[in-house]
Amino acid sequence: MKKKYILLLLLLISVTTFGQYVSIPDVNFREHLKNKYPSCFDKNELLDTTCTEIVNETSLYLSQKNISDLSGLQYFKNLSFLDCGGNKLSSLPPLPKGLSILFCPSNQLISLPSLPGGLYSITCSSNKLSSLPNLPYTLVSLYCDNNLLTTLPSPPSTLVRLSCDNNLLEQLPYFYKGLEWLYCSENKIRSINSLPESLTYLVCNSNNLTELPSLTKNLGVLSCSKNQIKNLPSLPSNLYQLYCDSNNLGTLPTLPDGLQILSISFNHLTGLPKLPANLTSLQADHNCFETIPENPRPEFLTRFVVTPNNENCEAFLAKYVTIPDPNFRTFLISKYPSCFNTSQKMDTTCSKITEVTLLEASSKNIQDLDGIQYFENLYRLNCTANKLKALPKKLPPHLASLDISNNEFESLPAIPENLLQFYCSQNKLTSLPSLPPKLTALGCINNSIENLPALPDGLTDFGCSNNRLVTLPALPPLLKILNLKNNLLQSLPELPSKLTHLYCNNNELTKLPALPPTIQTLECTSNRLTALPELPSKIQSVIAYNNCFITIPYISGIYINASPNRPDCIVTGILNGSPISPGKISYHKPGYIHIHESGHLEVYNSIGSIVIKQYLREGDVLNVENLIQGVYLCVIDMEMFKFVKD
What we know:
single chain, 646 residues, mainly beta, Leucine-rich repeat, LRR (right-handed beta-alpha superhelix), Immunoglobulin-like, 13-stranded parallel β-sheet, 10-stranded parallel β-sheet, elongated
């Protein structure tokens, strides 16, 4: 039994001893390790994985060793730095947990293993990587240029430097505050999201960019050459180098005072802005300068190249137009500065012009809107309170809402067929042209219009108060709001069945047509009405004073004040056939009497008996709902009126 125990112990020792020696399969890797750590190999060229030199090693420099396989790397348990660039590696073994710097460019890597949690810097440029693993939260620098990457993983908040040039990226991830360098040239990026405030270098050449995001105040170097950028955003005051060659720039923003190098060749610039005093180098050849600029400070601006011009300048310059009205031009320049060149000509292809849908140009002293036709997608134009006397011959093709109120129009041209809303109030118009068939809202208040054209069937809102109308055309069936105040109308046509609001104050009306059941508001003051038509049950507001009423039906209360009739009305027929003064009106079924002036009130029934006698103060309300059916005569300080309880 004792011999058996001794034999078993010897076998265990033998197995353990054999297990600490491993073969390094790649001959070039093995040769490098043998030369560097000869005492860690036995006579059979097996590596002792417990060798102190291997276990305690912190740095490995393996570049340009023709290595294809790094199996055995896992035994370097304390490794913090690995340089294996310029080899023939297609993959990496599991990386030591303590690794902080990984340098593996110029290999044939198609993927990376999981990255250690404490990794500080990764350089994996010039490989065949199509994706990257999740990045550790400690990462500060990532260099992954010249690969096949289509996306990037979310970067950690610790990332300071990123270089991902020459990949297949179409977009960039969100970057946390802290990123200082971003190099992303030679990709397929169409747009860049907002940039972190910490960014100082942005190099994004050779992409598909048409614009840049707002630039951060700390940015010192911007290089965006070989894109399709038409306009640059405002440049930060800290910028000292700007490279934007081979784009579609037609103008430049204001240049910061500290700018030292400006390279803008192969664009479509027609002029230069004011050059900063610190500028030492200007490369601006192959543009479209209308006048070749001269070097303002040859002793300091030592490099100044502005010729020759582009060959296609004539075609390019054709898209620039002059806005003839100086006030309209000034307004547009203030709103869209990047769409104007240094000669204050507007780029008719500028996206901010062609894509705008709403333009508010009120109170700008504008006399001529010529140039508005280039706003191809303009939907709504508000140019009220100017000095316009005419409209341009051509308006934007998609214009649907036009407000030219408070100008100096005496006549109007044909109104665009697509217009849905048209407002021309407070002008000097005496007539309107034919109205577009799709019009839904029309406002022509405060003019001198005597006759109206046919109103479109789809019109729902019509305001034509303060004119000289004597008659109206047929009203559209969908009309909901009708404002005819302060005209000379003696009658109204049939009211549409959907009408909700009718305003016909200050006319010469003697009768109103039947009110539709949809009516909510009726204002008909200062006419010659002797009666109101039947009021629908859902009506909410009736204002009808200063007429010639004999009777007013179905009201909730009587307001005792000055006479509700106009002073020149004489009506007959309600008090024994005797003439009734303007204050003598018959009210049907009132519920309350509202007192506007203090006085003695007496209410008589039909046989002359007093049923109510009371002194009421201003603002008091007398409830008469409980009076029985009959005719009552009210006298307040000798003023008389009549009401009926049916």
